Amino acid sequence: KQTKFVKREYITCIIIFSIIAFTACDQRYNTYNPIPEMPVNYTLNIVRDAPILMTQGGFISITEPNKSGQYIGYGGLLIFYGFDNYYYAYDLSCPHECKKEVRVIPSMAGIAECPECKTKYDIGFGTGMPSGGESEYGLRRYTVTISGENLRVTK
């Protein structure tokens, strides 16, 4: 009888712990992104066009397409070579300000900061989430594919 009681208590504790664990997750950041969805299709040769992207922490900001048929999202593109050896691309517009002309300023430290609201976004490992400041939204992230020396960013 005591074994059944111990098993029941054990299962009850696991259920209670599971409920607490799932409901206690940080709800601060919203998965909705106020930056409008705009076309994104941008290709560059890393070696020729952006050799800084061969260094971890290297980044480029693109505010104008380099040729016709290329699209750079809402406020432009931020391409970052992450600390985990992956490439990441984000829209340059701050999602808190939500204006094309208010663009985050990236650094090789893996942080991009909005000059208006002062929100800092983690870009070094691909999250784009705020790490301080007013914003509750992460940067809009885009898909990066690599083919040889070519890097392509799409929605």
Summarize the structure.
With 155 residues, the protein is α+β, with helices and mostly antiparallel strands.
**Radius of gyration over all CA atoms, rounded:** 21 Å
- Overall mean pLDDT score? 88
How many runs of DSSP E, i.e. beta strands? Answer: 11
SS field, number of helical segments: 2
Summarize the amount of helix as a percent range: 10-25%
Helix/strand order: HEHEEEEEEEEEE
Based on secondary structure, the structural category is: alpha+beta
Low-confidence stretches: 20-28
| Main sheet attributes: strand count, strand direction, barrel closure | 7 strands, antiparallel
Give an overview of the whole structure:
17% of the residues lie in helices and 29% in strands. It has helices spanning 2-23, 46-49; strands at residues 40-45, 59-62, 71-72, 77-81, 87-91, 105-106, 111-113, 120-122, 130-132, 141-147, 150-154. The model is unreliable at 20-28 (pLDDT under 50).
Which properties best describe this structure?
alpha+beta; four-stranded antiparallel β-sheet; seven-stranded antiparallel β-sheet; 2 helices; single chain; 29% strand; 155 residues
Task: Set down the secondary structure blueprint.
Layout: H1 2-23, E1 40-45, H2 46-49, E2 59-62, E3 71-72, E4 77-81, E5 87-91, E6 105-106, E7 111-113, E8 120-122, E9 130-132, E10 141-147, E11 150-154
Antiparallel strand pairs: 1-3, 1-11, 2-4, 4-5, 5-10, 6-7, 7-8, 8-9, 10-11
